[in-house]
Amino acid sequence: MDQVRQTIPQPAHQSARPTFSELFTPKLVTVLREGYTLEHFKADFIAGLTVAIVALPLSMAIAIGSGVTPERGLYTSIIGGFIISALGGSRFQIGGPAGAFIVLVAATTARVGVDGLLLATMMAGVFLLAIGYLRLGTYIKFIPYPVTVGFTAGIAVIIFSGQIVELFGLTLPGKEPGPFVPKLIALGEAAGTMNIAATFVAALTIVTIALLKRWRPKWPAMLIAIGLASLAVAMFALPAETIGTRYGGIPRSLQWPVLPPVSLGRMVDVLPDAIAFALLGAIESLLSAVVADGMTGRRHRSNCELVAQGFANIASALFGGICATGTIARTATNVRAGAHGPVSGMIHSVILLVLMLVAAPLASYIPLAALAGVLAVVCWNMFEKQAFATLLRASRGDALVLMATFLIVVFRDLTEGIVVGFVLGSILFIDRMSKSIAVEVDQPLVQEDIADGSTAYDAGEASDANTVVYRISGAFFFGAASTVGTVLDRIADQRKNFILDCSAVPFFDSTAANVIEGAAHKARRAGVRFIISGASPRIRRMLINHGVKRPLVTYAASIKDARAQLASESAGMAGRAG
């Protein structure tokens, strides 16, 4: 889930910086401007219907797994999903409750209740608006791929562990523990209370989904599996708990928008949850949009997408829903179903609303074990087994980041897992970049220079015994400062002239400029003429701002120009001497 950022030259007639309208115009407006026909609507309607059938059981299952009532998952798909499609920066994004949020939402609900959860969701929406309008969405892509894989796998393990009670119909003597290890201990102690009927229903659901995915991949496997499980429970009067027996069914209408209780103390209390919701929502939604881009060849507007996510979460909370974000599986289903644009996502939400209004009484018969079976399949798909195995084999660094993120998410905390994984990934990147820089020399000043990483690059340049030429290749930043500084410290007074070629340096930072400044002062004290050649205008400005200027150094466009400059000065001095 890593990309490499590239700089693409802009044509002369284009602005180097996109305008506000270019960044924040919803894709719905773009699609309508292109011309929206009846054929396009038919394609979007079929895709929207297909996604709604997938989203119906999934929304309820995610809500129950998150520790709230099933209708709140439907509210999220209806309200949040509609707004994400209408205002978002992706043509194909489908919004709603996501499995990745189950652990966070369940922990928040257990700690501060549903009202606190709704307030945290609204605050997360405000944070997402700020991230989008401040144009920070482009930085989300810098989260390392091993972090996202490890994080997702860790969440899958935690979600599955939370469904074991429903999968086997276990009866716990008290409240189910939140931490992973105590939870496993409690589940082991309750193994003797297993309900055979619930286990059968869960197994029937999982096997049905697996067989349909294999033999009839276009059929709505989850909906069929839940229907079959519900029918089995009703026909054979199986002692398995259902939505009706635990929650009393789901309402046949949307609730009116209501603002949750708001106070300064309450906002401070849920602030960490809101930040976690916003960061995870940004990552999940933009990742989903990238997946859709890869499937279709289109490009999403990341900051516009985050703004839509912000409005969607605020509205979802007002209507009693939970966190809304872009969902990868439903988005991919939307693309495969032949969607033309965002209208399909809006239709998916409308169809869910109609189904809730018309068929809500039927939801009472859905067994909780069947919904747990659906989430077990979701967990299996979330755990990217091939990517996980590939990263373990790729390199020690990637394996370290992957396992650190995974284990901390499972045994400690979600946010800590992301932070530690990101920090480790950044440190490894700095280490790799620092090793990529090279210092080449036409001929070493002293034999020991060879062992310090300097290598000959053009023996033909060594025509002047009084001049030495060093060439730096690669990004020169704080991570490489020690390597380059060690080589530059070998500037000795045996040579009168020193040329430092920076034509192959794409980037300088302040630490690098400080290293060059120190080398320049040392050269001046030794009476060595110091010329910097090939520096780009940006690098030259950086050096000059750090005091690397006359009389310490002079600048030349190339090594040839630097030699010509030295030759001219020598000729001038010889003329004055004559």
TrEMBL record:
Query: Keywords on this record?
Result: Membrane, Transmembrane, Transmembrane helix
Residues of the STAS domain: 466-566
Where does the protein end up?
Membrane
Q: Which residues cross the membrane?
A: 45-66, 73-94, 100-130, 142-164, 184-212, 219-238, 274-294, 306-329, 349-378, 399-430, 468-488
> Is Membrane a UniProt keyword of this protein?
yes
Primary localization: membrane
Membrane topology type, per the record? Multi-pass membrane protein
Superkingdom: Bacteria
Recorded hits in InterPro entries, A to Z, give: SLC26A/SulP_dom, SLC26A/SulP_fam, STAS_dom, STAS_dom_sf
PANTHER family per the record?
SULFATE TRANSPORTER (PTHR11814)
In its UniProt entry, what is this protein called? SulP family inorganic anion transporter
